[in-house]
Amino acid sequence: MGTSNTSTLARYEKLIANKELRADPDQRRAAARLDALQKELEAERPGGLLSQLFSRKTPRAQGVYMWGGVGRGKSMLMDLFHDALRIKEKRRVHFHAFMQEVHEAMREARKNHGGDPIPAVAAKLSDGVRVLAFDEMVVNNSADAMIMSRLFTQLIMERDVTIVTTSNRPPDDLYKDGLNREHFLPFIDLIHAQLDVVSLNGPTDYRLDRIGDLESWYAPMGDEATAKVREVFFRLTDFDPDDAANVPSGELAVGSKRSMYVPKSLKGVAVFSFKRLCEEARGAPDYLAIARAYHTVIIVGIPQLGPEKRNEAARFVTLIDALYEHRVKLFATAASEPETLYESGDGSFEFERTVSRLNEMQSDEYMALGHGTDSQVQSN
């Protein structure tokens, strides 16, 4: 994207002119908002014109919360903004990595100072930073939810840090149905008060280009199939394959009283084993929580299902129903093709609908659909 001192909007329009992007009104509106923020921040930089003319403190610039479905260009716009912004006091970080840093800083603060660690942590994280830019803000566990309201109030209101973030969800849907969510609600209020909420739900899913040459159902299982779904994960998340051992896990709230462990969870992509999803005692609430939280699910190790596995087959049917109804992209390694996965046993006749859905979920038309149910997509 280069390092020339052009504005965010000018860089975006150059990509359109060069046909690297297709025109998208939502994207252009977001680019224009980020461009305005860039100009405001650059005008207010220490030692700049405004600080020379006025001795009083310059008001903090209003932040931006960009949200939308997968592949709508949120990260691309963040790249343009951060690269174009001509101030030194800026930081770009993935939200998951940032929260890991927060927890470590809190442990250090408690050990060294005792008492409430939040002010000390906010002071440390804001040192030399006027703009914090986050990719993929998501809240999947109660520990993060309990911290965020107080921490971000300190960063924004006390430390004058401008927050720019992307998310797959609108603010009101963050940590939806999570444990002790009432403690998280002030954070949602803070977003609405201190950040401009900008939606990106245009017609083009740019991330599809990254997986366009990859199949979604791999049978039989084996090293080749595993390598393919592994490639899908790294293409969709931009995570370094050489650092595969450090792919983050997640904790997903199921209703208001319990949660489930997600072995690999990053940027709206989750990886599960069939054993974890369908051989353990799970039901519709678990599968609906997954379908709402993740735009892409990778399931590894789907075995041949026979009469002795009727319970597993029934759970699998419920799982696929939830994923299908929420337009979740599914990638899988399996013992056989869908048509021969469960040919006999209780419910094998009903399983034919699941076979039909699995085949439809492999189609280009399904893959192009936005994440969410019909009502959710229409409301976006």
TrEMBL record:
UniProt xrefs under Gene3D superfamilies: P-loop containing nucleotide triphosphate hydrolases
> Does the keyword field hold Nucleotide-binding?
yes
> Does Nucleotide-binding appear among the keywords?
yes
* Entries under InterPro entries matching the protein: ATPase_AFG1-like, P-loop_NTPase
Q: Which GO terms describe its molecular function?
A: ATP binding; ATP hydrolysis activity
| GO cellular component terms attached to this protein's record | cytoplasm
Q: Which UniProt keywords apply?
A: ATP-binding, Nucleotide-binding
Q: Which domain of life is it from?
A: Bacteria
Q: Which Pfam families match?
A: AFG1_ATPase
Q: Which named protein is this?
A: ATPase
Q: What is the native source organism of this protein?
A: Erythrobacter longus
Lineage at the top is: Bacteria, Pseudomonadati, Pseudomonadota, Alphaproteobacteria, Sphingomonadales
